User: What shape does this take?
Amino acid sequence: MFSLPDLPYSYDALDKYISKDIMYLHHAKHHQTYVDKLNAAVASAPELQGKSLEDLLTNLNSVPDALRNAVRNHGGGHYNHSMFWQWMSPNGGGEPTGELKAKIIEKYGSFQAFVDEFTTKALAVFGSGWVWLQPNLDILTTANQDNPLMNGDKAPILGLDIWEHAYYLDYKNKRDDYVKAWWNVVNWDFVDNLARKNAT
Ligand code: MN3
Assistant: This one.
């Protein structure tokens, strides 16, 4: 059985940029629903039980046809949000340090140019989806709760939820204001660690 991870900070910890109301609804309601529906899907298929979330998402073809969409949407939702909470921190913002920063500058010319490209891709996604930074520093986007693991790519080192439920209460239809604010809470220490871990 999968379970909802605790937030690594309080619901109001990011309040300057993302309100307590959004964080509560997003974690306790939306994420909980993905967990519940993933568990319901897995419970109905003995062959899926005991598999890790990453295993399920990287091998969606081995999930029975009738359950594939449920595992894709709710398993993706569970994975993406479990990471998303860790990609933010009340002590976040600023820039990465060390090797990651050097590699970003090498690839994009400057840290700001990277931020601009990631932001442009976030604003270009039609409807609901996610923006990802990959270990090779490519920026990918996916629709709905899909993620790079489902496409045979490596686990992302950073991701941004651009579903309206992530920002509408605070920013209404202004996705650009939300994305601009979100950079102030990015947990670069965690991203740095993932970049080192996923580099091999
Ligand atoms: Mn979400």
